[in-house]
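pasting for the record
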Amino acid sequence: MYSDCHIHIERGPYTIEWIKEYINQAQYMGLNEIYLLEHTHRFFEFKGLYSNIMLYNDFQRDWLSNKKMQSITDYINLIEVCKKIKFPISVKFGLEICYEPGKENLIKKITSNYNFDFLVGSIHSIDGFEYDLYPESWVGKNVNILYRRYYEITLEAINSNLFDGIAHPDAIKCFGHNSTLDMSKYYLKMALLINKNRMYIEDNGGLMLNYGYKKELGMNEKMRMIFKENHVNIKLASDAHIPEHVGKNIKSLSKLWSY
């Protein structure tokens, strides 16, 4: 049996019927557990988390301004209803939180009000730069500098004591940009901190699923090797955004972790 630990429900209504579509697909794919979540940028309670991103350029400001934000209480109400139902598989509910250095108190203040099953941190921006929105945004950027900052921020996120896990740990490669530097020292630091803080990290197939990234499935091989050597707690993830994608690539990812 398999688990898919990163599934977004954002493209449908907050109803039991919508959740059951994810569960039905999970059963079809042979899963016994799914982690359902939402991005924090869906909720106006987290708007302050994105101030640096909105100031970075007009495109990012407009992208966020056009998001149809709602109150997180709508999501909480759905979770409370679902918790009263005995589903045929294990269903956990959480948040994917866009980690921003300096915003730790804001994150803690909001999340402490709710009892989520899990909180997963993700790095979607580098000092305000949303690296994964559109390929042209990388024009003129220093790839090596961005990679170093990306992993420095990831280490801060791991050490923040805010999260149970870290999502898609090398998503910075989404548009095919690769550093010429050896990132192994960052991978090792990540592995040791993840273990020290008793967290998990995802091997997430979302770049292939959602970006058409074809070079490799999930995290890069050097990262996977270092995490294997250090016995890091790994959870497999599809990064599905629709029910039909639940469980996508999970079995293929699982084979990459066989010893």
